Each structure stands twice: as C-alpha cells, then as structure tokens.
Model the fold of this input.
Amino acid sequence: MGTFSDAAGRIGPLDQAAAAETARHHDRLTKPKGSLGRLESLGVQLAGICGSCPPSVPSPAAVAVFAGDHGVLSEGVSPWPQEVTAQMVANFCSGGAAINVLARHCGAEVVVVDVGVASDIPVPDGAELISAKVRRGTRNFLVEDAMTKDEAIEALDVGASVAGTLVSKGMRALVTGDMGIGNTTPSAALIAVVTGRPPEEVAGRGTGINDADLAHKIEVIARGIERAKRESGDDPLSLLASLGGFEIAALAGFVAGGAAARVPVLIDGVIAAAGALVASLLAPGCVDYCIAGHRSTEPGSSIALDHLGLDPVVDLELRLGEGTGACLALPVLQAAAKISQEMATFDSAGVSEKAGTLDH
Done:
C-alpha cells in the first residue's frame, strides 16, 4: 500500500461532539450570539478536526510548495518560458519570493518540493530543496496522457508523505503551495471535467495572456478534455494522469495526508483547488479538513470551491499562487482557535447573559 492509499484509508469523520460543544461554548462567551461570524464557524470546524473543545491553535504551520513542469506548455498556453519554473524554485529556496515574505510574516515554515521540474534547479548554497522528482515534466495532454497512472500515484504518494513528515515534526496546520509555468491550463482542465463546467467558464488568463491567447488556451483545454474522456472515461485516477500535473497530484496527496493526520489544510488558489477536487474523489472525507484560504481571481477557483462547498476566508484579488493567499488566511484561523481558548464566558466574567442578546 502506498503512502497516499494509506492516508486515504485513515481519514475519519470530524469529531461532531467536540464541534457541537465548541458551538455551545461560543454562545456562552461575552458577546452577542453569532457576532464573531466566520471566526465562530471556523472554531467549530477546528474543534471537529482536532477533536477537542476548545480547539488547539493550528500552530506551528508549514507551507509546502510543490513544483512541476507541463508538456502542454509547448502549445503556447503561456508566454513565460519553462525555465522560469526552476528559477523560481531556486528563489523559493533562497527566501526571496512572495510566499517566503508572507510566510515569515505569518510565522510559517516554507518547504519546497521538486516533484516534476523539467530542468536542473540551481539551489543556492545552504538552501534546502526536497528532491522527489517523478519525471522531468509531464507530457503534452493535448496528444497523450500527461502522466502514466504509476507516475500519478507516485506524485500522490509524494504529497501524502510530505504532509505526514511535517505533522510528525510538530506542524499543526498545512498550507498548499505550487509552482509550474503553464499550470493553470491542466488545473482548468481538471476543474472543468470534475465540475462539468465548460472550459470557457473555467479557464483564466493565468500570467496575463491577451484575448486571442485565452481563446487558444480554451481550445487546447477543450480538445485535451475530449481526448482524455475518450481514452480514460470517468475514472478519477485516469483523468488525473491524463490531464494533470505532478504538482497537482502532489497537492491532492498533501490534502489527504493532512486530513489523515487530523490537521487543517489551507487551500490556496486555482492549482490547489484542482488538487483538492482530485483529492475529494480519491480520498472521500478529506474536504472536511480543508479550509479555503482565499478566492483567486482565476475563474476556476470559485467554480472549484463552490463545488467543494468551501467558503474562502479572504478575497484580496490575488492570482499569484505559491500559497500566498492561503498563508494570509492562517492568522485568521489561529485567531478563531484563540477566541475559543481565551475569551471569557459570561459566568467567568461576571457579566449577565442577557447582555448576549443585545446589540452592541
């Protein structure tokens, strides 16, 4: 049994007793009932995840940035050259990217995983990179399967293994990150297939392509989906192998691994949302452990999150990826737990409970 299969088999339901007790506890806090909105519902979810009331604070946290390249880039779906993937991975390792800045701000650790970068990575001296390369980039999904099933399973295993290792080191929250030039194309393809939405509703501009290039990208996605469905049917693993990327598969494994370890998994943008969709099919129950960190401006993000039933914590019009939006939601998640832990109840503060029925 592989790491992913093992994780998928260990995912259990949320602790409903702890969640219900936390909801009742919120009603005893010195505030009008429900006045802290999403902080209260997030606290209830955290209690269900960790199985305690009040919930433990999801800290420390780690951002895992999975990186891979894509054969479909040869179809001209992005103006950026493939070598930028390796260059950006080196930037992550040296601490100079947006995710590094935001992770430092939020007190999160960043781990970088090469799961399918096409070229060698110039890792700076003293920097750390997890080398788990399944293959040097996927194949062009327009003409053939992007991955074999064995390669897809290996990438799923990488993600689940990274999640398990981080939790075993003491991490109590996991944040999804990604890097891969052209990866909005396979993400859109997977989201379209899983949700049943047409490619023109799902595909976005990625790194900022013009109208003509967007129309071409939509055509590539539509033709790739047609080929994949003809050759792979509706089997989730086959569709992942046919259309997906190594980093998308690893993200799916990462989500399942976090769920199996009963820690919250913060979902970032459209790439991570595609991975979460795949995980929901291959590891039922994992979505209960997911929290949508933010809503990307890529249209596929909203479509995927709506399909998963996830409501984003923040909406800052981001579309960078890397884990940036999800990382920014981490302090909100931690605040939700601290409200349950630290806020006084009416009894402990000597405040009349009737105050909780009044507007402030």
In short: The beta strands are 61-68, 109-116, 130-131, 173-179, 265-267, 290-292. The domain at 61-331 is CATH 3.40.50.10210 (Rossmann fold). The mean pLDDT is 95.
